[in-house]
Design a protein that fits this description.
about 500 residues; alpha+beta; Beta-Lactamase; Heat Shock Protein 90; 3 domains; 6-stranded antiparallel sheet; 3-stranded mixed sheet; elongated
Amino acid sequence: MKEPEIEEKKKTIVEEDLNDALFQALSGTTSQLTKEEIHEKEIPKSILEEDQNFFASMENFETSIEKPEENILETEKENIVEAEQFIPKPHQEIPIIEESFERAIDFEDQKDFYYEEKSLEKNLEQETKQEPVNVSSDDSSSKLTTKELEMLLRAAELVNSTVKVDEVLQNIVTVAMQLTNADRGTLYIVDKEKNELWSLILHANEIKEIRLKIGEGLAGYSAKTGETLNIKDVQNDPRFNKDYDRASGYVTKSMICFPIKNNQSEIIGVLQLINSKNGFFTERDEIFLAALSIHSAIALQNAENVARLLQSERVHSLGKMANFLIQDIKKPILVSKRYSEHLLSKKLPAEISQVVEMILEQLNHVVDIVQTTSSYSEGKTVLRTLNVSLNNTLKDYASRIDNYVVSKSCRIVNEFDKDVTVRLDLKEFYQCYFHVIKNACDAMPEGGTIYISTKREEKKVKIFFKDNGLGIPDSVKDKIFDPFVSYGKKEGTGLGLA
């Protein structure tokens, strides 16, 4: 075998080994060969013989030169330059891809977003002309170029660049659409308690939550079975729910649903991509998603862990805040309360007496809040209940809060069932009533009507609050009485209903 042919084979072997190592590092399957495994590698005998002859000639060559540093052959210089050309550069700049990912995060300009997708698509076409890296020797379509593997590394960095749940969801979908050239995408998260999938979507400049049952539709089927669904024509698939297309006017043609699993192999989400711009999704796209799903699962779990940690920190801060309220705020409030009571004992004009009574009522209200917060932080719940008329109590509360409601351009309409006697802690119940009404007013910035109704059911009575505001998702409704739960408001601690 001639020397140029030997060098070419060596170059090819080194290049393939480097590319295989890059792919294994991405997919988390990197392993090292033992000495025995290395010796087991079969090397052609002819190559070994020619290598031995080559090194023997080099030894003779070195002994014949007095100053080797001044007599380097030009052919050796060329070999060094040639070797440097195929050594991979781990930090090689890829401006088109980097720009595409940075611009894709910005959802404010949809035109630029799609323009950058086209730029990435064009770049991918150029990259796929390179010599591919073998991922699976049995399937010719399962080959990724070195550039594509670098894209996956960049994608992993982007996915793990934040710990906010909504941003993590957005980044994963953005990257997946870029890698697979999909037109649209959604990442559904598994809600084990409700046996549902949920996701956040951007609709009319607002982020809204959507939900579907596990097993419902193609995404639900993938979540239930753990199967990857790659369908070229979803319109002919009986599992496909056509209601979404009818409602939006959008026509879904091709779809891929890829389950995301944690390190316990539990399904924690489903990535759904629709309408490949190449006509349909390929096995190459599945390879992209398989690599991306590993980092997606880690990013999702990190975001959930951070959210739980923040919740714990806020509860701890509440205890400190309660101590501050008791020690530093309660004293001046009690002094103001005594002065107000003293003024009421004097003969004052009716108008002034009415104002003082209102001040005293609000001071009592503040004292109750401080005491309740203190008890909650210490894990104490003390209810002082009385037998009262429910309808009369609700009417009284409505009159007490009427000035606030009117100031918000709203009104309260009572629609009560037959009156019933109930046992209530009037102060605690008023806290709940007040904050429900306050939240309703906040949800109707242009004003509106709040309907309050009661309904008797055997030994129970239900109280309904209804308004024509923006509403809250079903997933939040069950948690509105938990501490620190707040939805759709820039301000507020989430303690009002807790």
